[in-house]
Amino acid sequence: MGDRNVAVRLKDFGEVDNGLSPKEAVEEAGRCLQCKKPACVDGCPVNIDIPAFVALIAKGEFLSAAESIRQQNLLPAICGRVCPQETQCEALCILGKKETPIRIGQLERFAADQERAKGLTVPARKTATGKRIAVIGSGPAGIVAAGELAKEGHDVVLYESLHAPGGVLTYGIPSFRLPKDVVRAEIDLILAMGVDLRLNHLVGRTVSYEELKEYDAILLGTGAGLPYFMGIPGENLSGVYSANEFLTRVNLMHAERFPEFDTPVARMSRVVVVGGGNVAMDAARTARRMGAKVTLVYRRREEDLPARAAEVHHAQQEGIEFITCANPVRILGEQAVTGIECIRMQMCNLDESGRPIPEPIDNDIFTLDCDVVIQAIGQGPNPVLVSQIPGLDKGRAGNVVTGEDGGTSHQKIFAAGDVTTGAATVIMAMGGAKQAARSISKMLANR
Amino acid sequence: MYLIEKSLKLSENVYEIWVNAPHVTRNAKAGQFVIIRTDENGERIPLTISKISGDLVRIIFMAVGKTTHALAAVPAGGAISDIAGPLGCSSAIKKYGTCVLVGGGVGIASTPVIAQDLKDAGNRVIGILGARNADFLILEDEMAEICDTLLIATDDGSKGHHGFAADLLKQVIGEEKVDAVWIIGPTIMMKVTSNVTREPGIKTFVSLNPIMVDGTGMCGSCRCVVDGKTKFACVDGPEFDAHQVDFDNLMQRQRYYMEHEKEALAQWKEHQCTCGGQH
Ligand SMILES: Cc1cc2nc3c(=O)[nH]c(=O)nc-3n(C[C@H](O)[C@H](O)[C@H](O)COP(=O)(O)OP(=O)(O)OC[C@H]3O[C@@H](n4cnc5c(N)ncnc54)[C@H](O)[C@@H]3O)c2cc1C
Ligand SMILES: Cc1cc2nc3c(=O)[nH]c(=O)nc-3n(C[C@H](O)[C@H](O)[C@H](O)COP(=O)(O)OP(=O)(O)OC[C@H]3O[C@@H](n4cnc5c(N)ncnc54)[C@H](O)[C@@H]3O)c2cc1C
Ligand code: SF4
Ligand code: SF4
Ligand code: FES
Residue A227 in contact with residue B219, Cβ under 8 Å? Predict the structure, then answer.
């Protein structure tokens, strides 16, 4: 069925990609070679049995396909939509060598959507163990860990500082890529397993670290929500947003429907977004839907854009102008933003990751007029809680250091997701959460 | 949903409510705040914790825009959809010696808890309350009970000193040695009043009130410039060293949504009329 027409989709926040029709899904699934040693599975961070579920779709057994996926992935409708499949499962599909790889993400989404339309069934729980576990943060890491732990029969309290669960799935990723009813349905299913969700609880303030110690185990899933700013002059003018603030105002608070919803966001006519990742694309495309002309400024070359290719393509289709090899040096304005001054960059020697290092070209400066600047240059772990845990091992960026098992330097504390890796992906957060949940059950069984 | 157990009007446009929120009261300390949302379409707004009693949090606020008007309209026995907290860092309570607490307008709401904790830490506490006129003076009795000395200033002279709280502060530091000062009120009042203690170099705290969204350090909406550095008031503050704060930047950022705010309030008021005051 493919993407909705650009002119239509820019008028709303509805999902851009319509997904596959049943006929298309069966056809696509039919192309799979059912490899004996399926390379695709190695590319999936949670090792979904891809050939198995694809075969079921090919046979028209959509619900069984979804059931098969759920063995490994509790959030299939979400991952099918936002996983960077092209660098994971699909990158390793054998068919990719000669023709196009199987569209695994689309098939996963299809099966999950079919299942949701029929009504989801709550997974069964094992007998109660009497162990109490605190999970902090209800993003993909916390949600999945809570679900896995509840399944094992533990009592799980899931703390969330905001008034709604989901983390970045709820406040960050816009509904035109990930509809909020899809997020809500998958989260509700996990909560229905008997997870005690406590909203409006900022752990580290509402609940102290001392109080947490009363739990048999603690899982940190607090994410990487701390927005970085560039540190250039003019950054504190009105009209300069972090991508987090801008996206939160719209996705979580529905500022696009002001004044029906109370939270405002700037009325913007020209927006400059700084950055080149998924977050920058989401901010740019959101601003576009608010009626602004949008320019994205990125310091490296187009081929270096870290965002998913599909997102860059969607952004370009939607009329977002890309200025690459340029970096802001100053934001202009007296009270509110009136423009941004950028310097051209040249690509010099390679850095450790093999990418060229951008260096400013002396005096090659240009100005863009704009009334809003959105900075999407990265995020770090939120320090509110982790800074209060004495002796917790942390990396240079403030991320919590864990072993392969998800364990930290404290015996009872485990961690998963962006708080350990820095800004990464939904599926990585889930993979880490499953591992940490297994380790917690093992630890508790041995005690 | 969180129950509003009591709701009363203190003066024109100033209200006091008591919200049942045991999760907030358990660890709340002086200087911290909550973020509330009245209903599902509501905005998240920060309000200072003004007192704790059992499971109840007292909040005192001025009805200035849509959300605060809506909050004032919730009757006792009604409910709000969210209250998160306690948020922010607590006041830097310790034994200083003599402390002065200056509250201006609805900012007086923040002073009793801080005054009590300073008192409990062994300080002599002088309170100075400033308001437009006697009718706008709140918490006078409560502060009089806690403070060793309480001074009053009104702009129109209807009670106490005819003039500003800053005049009284100047007078106090002229008369005796003051070791620490808190100034809490409208931004312009904090800016002007903190100049009084700048020259003598007295440690002075102000509680900043930038526009917030999450209150957890995730968005950066609340960023303020302190000592030339960007700070997030919701997690690094809200109290900062008054003599390091860029007040002009704060006031500029506070004004950003003025047009939206007017519209939202007008729409709310209109809606109130067409349905006979019923929500
Ligand atoms: C705009 C945007 C677009 C993205 N697009 C994609 C994409 O297309 N595909 C992809 O795979 N990944 C994408 N990502 C990355 C992905 O969303 C994250 O890697 C993932 O959400 C991390 O999950 P998490 O559970 O570790 O953290 P989060 O999702 O950040 O959740 C953390 C949760 O913890 C809560 N919290 C924090 N501190 C506390 C505390 N002290 N007490 C209580 N609660 C607390 C937060 O409120 C939050 O709800 C995107 C990220 C952003 C910001
Ligand atoms: C830490 C902190 C503690 C506060 N404590 C109190 C208190 O105890 N009593 C009290 O009366 N007020 C307090 N305020 C101010 C209070 O938050 C605002 O008056 C309220 O948000 C106004 O909302 P509104 O919709 O009624 O008005 P609006 O019409 O939306 O706005 C009126 C003014 O309030 C400010 N404001 C608007 N939205 C926000 C927001 N989301 N966050 C912060 N400020 C905003 C703006 O400067 C604006 O000009 C505090 C603010 C902060 C940051
Ligand atoms: S979860 Fe992601 S990586 Fe795994 S199969 Fe699905 S789309 Fe591919
Ligand atoms: S590698 Fe490709 S063709 Fe082989 S099983 Fe996986 S999806 Fe099918
Ligand atoms: S209000 Fe969002 S970071 Fe402070």
Answer: yes
What tokens were used for A77? 């409708």
What tokens were used for B9?
A: 């009007």
Helix (H, G, I), strand (E, B) or coil at A13: coil
In angstroms, how far is CA A27 from the centroid of its own chain? Answer: 30
The answer to whether the CB of A68 falls within 8 A of the CB of A41 is no
SS3 category, A359? strand
Phi, psi of A425 (to 5 degrees): -130, 165
| For residue B277, pLDDT beyond 80 | no
A378 lines ligand 1 (CB under 6 A): no
Burial A55-76 (b: 16+ CB within 10 A, else e): bbbbeeebebbbebbbebbbbb
CA distance A4 to chain B (A): 29
SS3 A176: coil
State which of A27, A28, A31, A32 you would mutate to test the pocket of ligand 4, scoring each by most atoms of that ligand within 8 A of its C-beta. Answer: A32
**From CA A355, how far away is CA B163, in angstroms rounded?**
65
Task: Give residue-wise pLDDT tens across range A266-295.
Answer: 999 999 999 999 999 999 999 999 999 999
- What SS3 state is found at A135? strand
ipTM score here? 0.94
Nearest by CB: A163 against B26, B82, B259: B82
From A206, A238, A384, residue closest to B256, measured CB to CB: A238
CA–CA gap between residue A89 and residue A9 (Å, rounded): 29
pLDDT tens readout for residues B16-49? 999 999 999 999 999 999 999 999 999 999 999 9
How many Cα neighbours within 13 Å face the side chain of A432?
A: 31
Residue ranges with strand state E in chain B = 2-11, 14-20, 33-37, 45-48, 51-53, 56-62, 79-80, 82-87, 98-104, 124-131, 149-154, 161-162, 180-184, 203-207, 223-226, 229-232, 239-241
Measure in Å the smallest separation between the Cα of A100 and chain B Cα atoms: 40
B210 lines ligand 5 (CB under 6 A): no
- Does B89 contact ligand 5 (Cβ within 6 A)? no
**Nearest C-alpha neighbor of B19 from the set B72, B74, B59:** B59
Confidence label for A1 from pLDDT (cuts 50, 70 and 90): confident
Strand order across the beta sheet in which A270-274 lies: A240-242, A372-375, A270-274, A293-297, A321-323
Please count the residue pairs, one from chain A and one from chain B, whose beta carbons lie less than 8 angstroms apart: 124
Q: How far apart are CA B86 and CA B98, in angstroms?
A: 28
* Ligand in nearest proximity to the CA of B260: 2
Show contacts of A260-265: CB within 8 Å, 24+ apart: A260/B41, A261/B41, A261/B42, A261/B43, A262/B41, A262/B42, A262/B43, A262/B66, A262/B67, A262/B264, A263/B43, A263/B44, A263/B213, A264/B257, A264/B260, A264/B261, A264/B264, A265/A290
What is the residue with the minimal CA distance to atom 27 of ligand 2?
A: B65
CA B157 – CA B163 distance, rounded (Å)? 7
DSSP 8-state assignment for residue A407: B
Is B49 within 8 Å of B35 (Cβ atoms)?
no
Q: Which helix (H) or strand (E) holds A421?
A: helix A418-421
Nearest ligand by distance to the CA of A40: 4
Is the beta carbon of A424 within 6 A of some atom in ligand 4? no
Q: Are strands B14-20 and B33-37 parallel, antiparallel or unpaired?
A: unpaired
Does the beta carbon of A71 sit less than 6 angstroms from any atom of ligand 4? no
Binary contact (B84, A235; C-beta < 8 A): no
